[in-house]
Design a protein that fits this description.
The chain is an alpha/beta fold. It has one domain: Alpha/Beta hydrolase fold, catalytic domain (Rossmann fold), CATH 3.40.50.1820. The chain contains eleven helices and nine strands. The chain has a nine-stranded mixed beta sheet, sandwiched between helices. A hairpin with a 5-residue loop joins strand 2 and strand 3. Helix 2 crosses helix 3 and helix 5 crosses helix 9.
């Protein structure tokens, strides 16, 4: 089935080609970024961009890194679908050099980038005092749309890779893809990952609700979101998350200064963990800095996005996916100093997925692990 795509204007009225604005001032990093790196702009220009209209009325925006592939090679290439985490966008998965024989499709999740808004909020509404409405998408419902997207892109076999919150979305999508007749899920890679909090194989495991959250930011988040009803929202908790997440949203995307080094530093160094050597490696790589800046620049579309994500991922049932599983080969990578997703979470993957191979990324935190993306991608497509 062929995708019905458009590459002109997104559902939010934002041009999908995203002409990146100039920096109003150098970004305070080493080396200083006073403009977008030429290599980054060149790689960006090689991407095919579009949106796919779904039967639900929502749209999924994507980039397709396929210009390096020979014509007529559709049957022989390996397709990887990339799913980003909270506060970011598909831009985070751009590699400095495309992988030979690999077609990389990166999507914006609902509420991010150029995809439709979260089902609990309209695309234009940004009222942090209002909770999600009755149309709020739970995990298993949301991922049905991503499965339809993959189908409409004409893909009948692929690999999945997710980061952070995208690892939970990736697991739910993988469970649904394996149930799809005639579809071959070839492998899954998870970066900065956790298993589904409500999976039935963990509900009687006391360590799951204790040990992983003795450290890191996830402890307070889980405690807050656990109290929410399946389709409602506690006002006080909503306020807390909106106040936190509002700092990640920019009201005027056409004129603002994207050189938000303060946000970058706070997110990468204060919240995400990592060794000083890894931070230096990240900060001195202009391509990686540019990808991170764009991912945040065109990430969350309104302040409620983070609340919707936290509720969906941590405080709601996964429906029929509570008993779900994945049989495809699986690789799981968590950073040694990852704060949101500590390495203690890795011990639970074999309990849910016996085939999972886990690895601690030495020195890395939650975001510096993108320095390893090329290696991780190569290991994934070699499964």
């Amino acid at each position: 089935m062929e995708a019905t795509t458009t590459a002109s204007v997104s559902p939010n009225g934002v041009p999908t080609e995203h002409i990146l604005p100039p920096f109003a001032k150098p970004v305070a990093m080493a080396p200083l970024l006073s403009e977008w790196p030429e290599h980054y702009l060149t790689r960006r220009s090689q991407l095919k961009r579009g949106t796919v209209q779904l039967s639900s009325g929502r749209t999924v925006a994507y980039t397709d890194d396929c210009a390096h592939l020979p014509e007529g090679s559709t049957e022989t290439v390996k397709t990887v679908v990339c799913i980003h985490g909270m506060c970011q966008s598909k831009a985070l998965f751009l590699l400095p050099t495309p992988l030979d024989g690999v077609r990389q499709i990166s999507i914006d999740r609902f509420g991010y980038g150029d995809s439709s808004g979260d089902a609990g909020y309209s695309d234009t509404k940004d009222n942090w005092l209002a909770g999600p409405d009755s149309g709020y998408l739970l995990m298993d419902e949301q991922c049905l749309d991503y499965v339809e997207f993959i189908d409409k892109m004409g893909i009948d076999k692929c690999y999945l890779i997710g980061h952070s919150a995208g690892t939970l979305v990736g697991q739910a999508t993988a469970m649904l893809l394996e149930k799809k007749e005639g579809f071959l899920l070839q492998g899954v890679a998870l970066m900065g990952a956790m298993v589904p909090p409500h999976h039935n194989k963990l509900k009687n495991d006391a360590t799951w609700w204790d040990l992983p959250f003795q450290t890191g930011t996830m402890k307070s988040n889980v405690n807050m979101m656990e109290g929410l009803s399946k389709r409602g929202c506690c006002f006080d908790m909503l306020c807390v998350f909106e106040m936190v997440s509002s700092s990640m949203v920019y009201k005027n995307r056409s004129t603002k200064d994207p050189g938000f080094a303060g946000l970058y530093t706070a997110t990468m160094k204060n919240d995400d963990g990592g060794s000083e050597a890894r931070f230096t490696e990240m900060d001195t790589n202009p391509f990686m800095v540019a990808a991170t800046l764009e991912a945040y620049l065109h990430g969350m579309n309104y302040t409620a996005t983070m609340t919707c994500d936290m509720y969906r991922l941590m405080g709601s049932s996964w429906g029929h996916l509570d008993d779900g599983t994945i049989t495809a080969p699986m690789l799981v990578f968590n950073g040694e100093f990852d704060t949101p997703m500590p390495t203690s979470l890795l011990q639970f993957f074999p309990k849910v997925y016996p085939q999972a191979k886990t690895q601690v990324l030495e020195g890395h935190g939650h975001s510096t692990m993108f320095l390893e993306l090329e290696r991780i991608m190569k290991e994934l497509v070699a499964l």
